[in-house]
UniProtKB/TrEMBL annotation:
One of its GO terms (biological process) is protoporphyrinogen IX biosynthetic process. PANTHER family: METHYLTETRAHYDROFOLATE:HOMOCYSTEINE METHYLTRANSFERASE RELATED, UROPORPHYRINOGEN DECARBOXYLASE. The gene is hemE. It comes from Pontibacter cellulosilyticus. Substrate binds at residues 26-30, 76, 153, 208, 319. GO terms for molecular function: uroporphyrinogen decarboxylase activity. It catalyses: uroporphyrinogen III + 4 H(+) = coproporphyrinogen III + 4 CO2. This is Uroporphyrinogen decarboxylase.
Length: 346
């Protein structure tokens, strides 16, 4: 299927584009009343994730409503631990909870390297249904969590400000941590390859908890596994988004991937210098900008676009859009990128 709008793919590959592509992390979700209507008619988040037709419907909502240049498959990074044997619950207003955690060798023995076709088939089906429904309008992004971030949830058992149990394991039992990272990496590689086979046009790896590691620990427990996944995915462009990992940007320049995501703490010019000229950068507006007036959103978005320049940039926020954001403000961000970048790229 030929893509009608392939700006995201061309920008990722570093080709000259007529304007900067734009999408938002967490664009499919609670900011849209249309999402909440579907979600509230169900038993919960997991039913939505596990029902391919419904997942496809909410994946496409932001393309219709917000006019973004990409869809991202509606799922969660936590489907991977679940497939490995560590099930999660999504607790209303509190977030994810794992009744069983991985703290010792016995816990590890209960886990398996998952087969995506067997244990994650509902995601692959959702990708196929979404691709058919999109009919080439925009590319579909597939994704997974980076191994360190997945380990963090499996060891901690829930969200946390510090992930001190997970971070502690890197000191108290590094061998166990590496064994778990090995299993997560093998599962994730097979899962992402299956997403590409099912039709994903680009893959994003979310290392949401990169920024809580020391640079030395990041190089030992995170980077090699991400690097391995990047080496395995060659069919489509890959984006690595490691929140808070400003210290790893130079290391990222050597990854076998096309795009590096930046969060809003990262200086654009300094990041470009660290990453080098041969990768596309994605980001990096503070999601809180979208709480401000339309005038402020336009001004700040234009400033961001000027700083990144017309090529090798994919416009996005520096992290997921916050659930209490007015969709009209998101539309203002998207339209400003489209209109202003068009004048820059002439
Ligand atoms: O639009 C999209 O981006 C696609 C869907 C998507 C979800 N989660 C849906 C979701 C994606 C890409 C994710 C990734 C994800 N999930 C990450 C990495 C990105 C990031 O934000 O750092 C992480 C760390 C998770 C884990 C997770 N899922 C948490 C901590 C929570 C609870 C807090 C929260 O943000 O709501 C979730 C739940 C979740 N995942 C929701 C959605 C739409 C809200 C659930 C609901 O509808 O009630």
């Amino acid at each position: 299927m030929q893509l009608k709008n392939d700006l995201l793919i061309r920008a990722a590959k570093g080709e000259v584009v007529e304007r900067t592509p734009v999408w938002l992390m967490r664009q499919a979700g609670r900011i849209l009343p249309e999402y909440r209507a579907v979600r509230n008619s169900l038993s919960g988040f997991k039913e939505l994730v596990e029902t391919p037709e419904l997942a496809a419907e909410v994946t496409i909502q932001p393309v219709d409503i917000l006019d973004v240049d990409a869809a991202i498959i509606f799922s969660d990074i936590l489907v991977v631990p679940e497939a490995m044997g560590c099930t999660y619950e999504m607790v209303e207003k509190r977030g994810p909870l794992f009744p069983k955690t991985v703290r010792n060798e016995e816990d590890l023995k209960q886990l398996r390297v998952a087969d995506p076709h067997e244990h994650l088939n509902y995601v692959l089906e959702a990708i196929k249904v979404t691709k058919r429904a999109l009919n080439g309008r925009v590319p579909l992004i597939g994704f997974a969590g980076a191994p360190w971030t997945i380990l963090a949830y499996m060891v901690e058992g829930s969200g946390s400000k510090t992930f001190s149990q997970a971070r502690g394991m890197l000191y108290t039992n590094p061998t166990l941590a590496h064994q778990l990272l090995r299993m997560i990496t093998d599962t994730t590689t097979a899962y992402l390859k299956a997403q590409v086979e099912a039709g994903a046009n680009l893959i994003q790896i979310f290392d949401s908890w990169a920024g809580i590691l020391s640079p030395a620990h990041y190089r030992e427990f995170a980077l090699p596994y991400i690097s391995e996944i990047c080496d395995a995915i060659n069919e489509v462009p890959v984006t690595v988004f490691a929140k808070g990992a400003f210290f790893a940007l130079e290391d990222f320049s050597k990854l076998n991937c096309e795009t590096i995501g930046l969060d809003w703490n990262m200086d654009i010019a300094k990041s470009r210098k660290d990453v080098g000229p041969n990768k596309t950068l994605q980001g990096n507006m503070d999601p809180c900008l979208l709480y401000s007036s339309f005038e402020t959103i336009e001004r700040e978005t234009k400033n961001m676009l000027k700083e990144f320049g017309p090529y090798r940039h994919i416009a996005n926020l520096g992290h997921g859009v916050y659930p209490d954001t007015d969709p009209e403000k998101v539309k203002c961000f998207v339209q400003t990128v489209k209109e202003y970048s068009h004048t820059m790229n002439k």
